[in-house]
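pasting for ref
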Amino acid sequence: MLCWFTWRCLGMCALFCLGGCCDNVSSICGAHSPGDILIGVLSPCHSKVDTLHERTEPKGFNCTNFDLQSFVRTLAVIHTIDTINDSGFLPGVRLGYVVCDTCSHATKAVQIAQHLLSVNGSLSVQCDLADRVPVKAIIGARYSEVSITVARFLGLHLVPQISTTSSAEILSDKLRFPSFLRTIPSDVHQTRALARFMAHFDWNWVGVVSGDDDYGRAALLSFLQEAEKAQVCLAFHEVVPHYLDHADSERRIQEVAEQIRSSDARVILLILKDQLVVHLFQEAMKANVSRIWIASDAWSMSRNVAGMEGIDSVGDIFGLSFITGEIPGFEEYLRNLQPGPGATNTFIEEYKKLRFECIPELPQLLQQHNACLAEHPPALCSLPDSLLFKSPLACNLSEPQKANDDFLVQGVNLNLSYNERVATWAIAHALRELLQCNETFCSADNFPPWKLLRELKKVNFTVDNRRFYFDKSGNFLNGYHLIHWVKDGSNKRHFKVVGEYNLIERDVQIDRGDIDWGNTNNTAPESKCSQPCHPGYVKKVSNISCCYNCTECEEGTYSDVENMDTCLSCPNGTWSKRGWSKCQTRVETFFTWNEPYAIVLLTGTALGELLLFAILVVFLAGRKSPAVKVAGGWFCYVMIAGLAVSFASVVLFVGRPNVRICQARQTMYGLGFTLCLSCVLVKAFRTFLAFLFDLYRRHRLRKLYKPVAIIALATVGQGLVCLFWLLFDSPGMETSYEGLTAVLQCREGSPEGSQAGFGAMHSYVALLACVCLLLALKGRKVPQRYNDTGYIIFSVLIYLFVWVCFIPVYVTKIRQRSAVQASAILASNFGMVFCHFMPKCYMILCKKKAENSPEAYLERVRIFSITSVHSAFARRSQDSGMSSLGTATPRGSVDFSPARGSVCSTIKEEPQVSAPPPLLRRRTRRCSI
């Protein structure tokens, strides 16, 4: 009991010293109440220090601009302390308080902290004297700038400090601020919530205005980091002085207002205190600027801003507010506002003086204000400070200090003071654990503040059915409410909760139906650096990620949603054109039956086959005629068969291809045309031998003249080429893509091959054609009427010309390869038909029998042979110098038998010795035809 009495006397003496030991203490701590344990309160009941920039001596601070919201927050702490004392929550222990005005300035807050920790009017830094510090915990300060400064000082003695509004992220650092706690989340959550809220409405082009204090700088840095993650970009960033009485404050606010007016950003984030927001909105009203304003927690529920004249003209306002609630009995306390028993509260006295005390110039000032409103916008007609809180009944009250009304209840958002209630209860719960209180008694042992700090970090209590505790960083994790400032038609705003930010899920939940945008479709306005890229386009980002140009997706790619960064590739079997938002299945195409050119080719094929059939009939009918026998006899029918197969192959070049068709059409053409050309080779070789008058060479070459063997060997050679082609480099099907078209066609070789088999097959045919051409050129001096060598030469030249032209066209016209090759085949076939068969058909059908008889034929051959022999003999005699008599003359014989394919006329020359020129005796042997 002695210790308890000593400790109580020490507290009373300390409180007395705080109230009167220094000349300026009464102006620092304007409210106090005695108690066993003192709780300090740092509250900016005034928003600025007058003429601070002119301060050159360490004199007292002259605080001005009474702050109604901070005043009510202070009253919430006092009311909660009185409630705890009356409830007996700490049996035998009474809580006292000391409320000191920081005037929103960090330097003055340091002065206050010094006095709160002083003993007998002086401050000791010795650790053993720390137990005697009368103030065991401090609630405050309001602004992070002040809290950061004070927290460094209070951390020296580990005096617990609980802030209800300071949200700067740096204060979570327990190494630098070991005794700082707060009943709100860190700004790292607030800035993330702000960025997520902007991203929710696709606002990626925003302006930011922040203060130059520690809170503004830290919040800005944190917001920039979170905005980048949410793909939100800054259109501009402006900084204004945090201190209201700064010399450049007015100029900077005007410059910021002009920047906002000229910017195309429609969303502006204001990380400022409410007094600065009021000044900025006044400038915005003058410039007729309307934007979407996003409020930080510092002014998100400021009645001072919401009650501004003309506030509806600035645009929509949203803000984030800490989770709040009602304080039981607080409204009634404000309606009957009086200091408690034994308490002193100069702030209440100042408020009642501003509210109820009469001033002589009141009627005149009100009249001037009303006249200004009649001629100018509300932004140009601000009330003087002396009239901001003045009651209309001010000059009708006899005792202003005893007067009360509901002005504070109506003019201030009381829910914002809920965290003061929670902070005070947190201290009470920590004291209950530290003092080991039961239902009737608490230990009255003296304790240092650091022991209370230790218990505060461990508290876990329930208030109003809500669970509260501090995390390892000393923060509450109770989330945010999203507030919409709703227009109510009275040119003022009221607050409506339209969503919340969940700290665990890290995302905002917004009820869009609760937001009235005031347009026809009730859609959120846009704030973007660039218009969205529609499907089919992608963003081509410039230096700023939110600013971009829209470029079309290339062929084969697409984008199906807005603002894609890259185009997506079309999946297999699909394709897209340039700038498409989806892919389509490719349409398969090939050389179809109903194409006009295909019909032409098929018609030509049918005519060719019919023509061959007609020729076959004619040749069969005139099979015994010399024309048929000269044309080749039996192997004419082989030629017809080969050409029929070659014509038939053209049909396989039309229609949907497959592997078997691709293999069959090339093989049919190669073998069929080779068979035909081998017969032409036999004809050319026969004619060459028949009219070769070098008897020795003719005799040797006749051994090679085996028609059946030549035809068989030539055809078998081509068959081997085709066989190796099919085995090692077989033709197949390939699909080439041209936009939305899938072209199906044959590939004349394996995918990794070089079409060597295709080239070998055609080279083989070309080789046979060249041999035929050489033999025909050597034996071209035959009877004019039966000049087959001319037809052979012409048909081979047609073939060579067609296929030489075919090569470049085939290489360049990839899609028309089938049509090109089919055309070349038809041209080659018709060349053979018209050169080898049509003249003979004409001879059979149109010539007289006298001209087409064996006798007429033999007579022409005889005359031609005699003439040729004489010419040859004369040339040979001239060349060998045979001018004298008695020289032997050569003997030669020529056989020409069409049935056997050789000349069957024998010319015999007998030598005469006596007289030149030699007498030739001729003997002709009749041949059977």
